[in-house]
Amino acid sequence: MKTTETARVSRTLYVLAAVVAALALAATCTLDVLADGASTDRNTAAVVPIPNEPAAKLVVDDPLADQLVHGRVVIPYRAENLRIIPVFGSAALDVSPRVGHIHVTVDDASWHWADASGEPVIMNGFSAGPHKVLIELVDANHKTLDKKTVNFVVPEGMQSGIHH
Fold first, then answer.
1. CATH code (residue 114)
2. Residues 145, 118, 80, 42: is their CA dihedral positive or negative?
3. Does 17 map to a domain?
4. pTM here?
5. Model confidence over 129-144: pLDDT tens digits?
């Protein structure tokens, strides 16, 4: 009985968090419209659902070369036609403009992690040699919309990037 009540409260909090995030997105869009004037690329307000939204696109730059010598990888990226925010679940699929996050997989690992910060992907502790990172742009239900693989080499004789 207590487990059922806990699950119900958990679901309620999850839905509440999704609603709060959607409201925050709407507020952000409203501020964008007020700050920038009328939307020029879509000819509509940013808080109104957009019919036939263009496909989401992931743009990934090469890792910052000056960081590789420390075994550190910094990969700048951006999403087009999708806002990177920490909103998850089916309810978020109806939000317009579209929302999502990224999944990151290193060197063909069997696991990945999700990131909804919109900030560059930063990873430490890479050994010298070739590596690859798969970055997937996904919707709120983790369905892949676009993906890019970044290949890079951490140079031999790298400087330690770990400070104790």
1. 2.60.40
2. positive
3. no
4. 0.67
5. 999 999 999 999 999 9
